[in-house]
Amino acid sequence: MTPAARTQAAIELLDAIVVSARDGGPAADTLIARWFATRRFAGSKDRRAIRSLVYDAIRLLGERPASGRAALLALASERPDIAETFDGSNYGPAAIAAGEPVAIRGLAPAWLRDALQRSGLDAVQIAALLDRAPLDIRVNTLMGSGADVQALFPDAQPIAGVPAGLRLPSDTPVERSPAFEGGLIEVQDAGSQKVSAAAGAAPGMTVIDLCAGAGGKTLALAAAMGNDGRIVATDTDRARLQRLQPRADRAGVSIVEARLLDPGEEASALADLRGAADVVLVDAPCSGTGTWRRNPEARWRLTHARLERLVATQARLLDLAATLAKPGGSITWIVCSLLDAEGADQIDAFLARMPGWRAEVPADVGTPHRAGARLTPAHDGTDGFFVARLRAP
Asked: Which DSSP letter does residue 239 get?
């Protein structure tokens, strides 16, 4: 493909991503994968170049642009090499016309930037949310050691404060490696590993992973427990939960029971576990502001109304978790968000309506933030998280 054809491809992809973000459709990486699957003529260099153009444009623009062309024109205004590809050639974009709409660069929509600032983040910390994410893996200690993995990946670097964590060059083909296929490693951000460890899961415990998804944190809990005890992993998303068992099998984990829940009927489906859990992990559905390094178009999806719905769902899940913890047991509350509405404010509200419960700030996790702790890309080099541990009376 010519440079101009790559630019036109990026414009087409951005058009699809803008519409999907507006209408709540598939994520950018899904749309990009589908686009390439139907265009076999695009070689590996073309794919890398097009993907880079798309994500560079997304990271540049805080507000959702009017079109893919407006987005690429914003990028072209800063990069003459891209501007030159608007040449009107076959398969390339039309030449730039005077007065054409150009998207405006920014860190995030104004209301969302203000909310992050009210949550204690300055401009440098907000900008770091859009850095490129590293490639982190978790060594599955049920299968081997860090030394075993480093023998297979000589470029792997230990991650400070993350005993089972290693950082690899971003282009490492991890998921095609024998170490991954054999269950020795899992791809997992260092921050995700830290907040999973904050739960304090130990051998012999009964643990409920209330929003398990595909099981990334579930498997980390199982390793911390030495595959000894019981983990009930639940979710309302059938497709995601179905991915857990094959992953558990590959990782040598045998203590996990997956349980699909109907939305709004979670309490009845978990009635047999009321007051039974040593640890309830709630990796709650959230705005994902802490994951913009991986999903920068998420800034274009979030609205006031969606945030309000998420906050209401989170409060309901916290109250459900409280019914599952045994006396003296704990809830570990995790959101991959840096908005106080989903983190510290949720904990304050929970403590106000649940007499006898108390908050414990997890040690050695990021920076203390009110009743919990916070991890940020700027300070910790990880995705953004808020984590708090709540102790039952």
From this structure: H
Q: Which pTM was predicted?
A: 0.93
Of 245, 243, 196, 241, the closest CA to residue 223 belongs to 196
Q: Which residues are catalytic?
A: 336
* Beta bridge partner(s), residue 207: 231, 279
Q: What is the CATH number of domain 137-186?
A: 3.30.70
CA pair distance 126, 292, nearest whole angstrom: 10
Per residue in 224-256, pLDDT tens? 999 999 999 999 999 999 999 999 999 999 999
pLDDT tens-digit series, residues 67-103:
999 999 999 999 999 999 999 999 999 999 999 999 9
Among 246, 253, 194, residue whose Cα is nearest residue 229: 253
Q: What are the residue boundaries of the structural domains of the chain, listed by start?
A: 3-106, 137-186, 190-391
The residues pairing with 275 across neighbouring beta strands, listed in sequence order, are none
φ, ψ (nearest 5 deg) of residue 152: -90, -30
- SS3 category, 318: helix
247: helix, strand or coil: helix
Could you say which architecture CATH assigns to the domain 190-391? 3-Layer(aba) Sandwich (3.40)
Structure confidence at residue 252 (pLDDT)? 97
Whether the Cβ atoms of residue 300 and residue 64 lie closer than 8 Å to each other: yes
Listing DSSP states for 13-81 in one string gives HHHHHHHHHHHT---HHHHHHHHHHT-TT--HHHHHHHHHHHHHHHHH-SSPPS-HHHHHHHHHTT-HH
DSSP 93: P
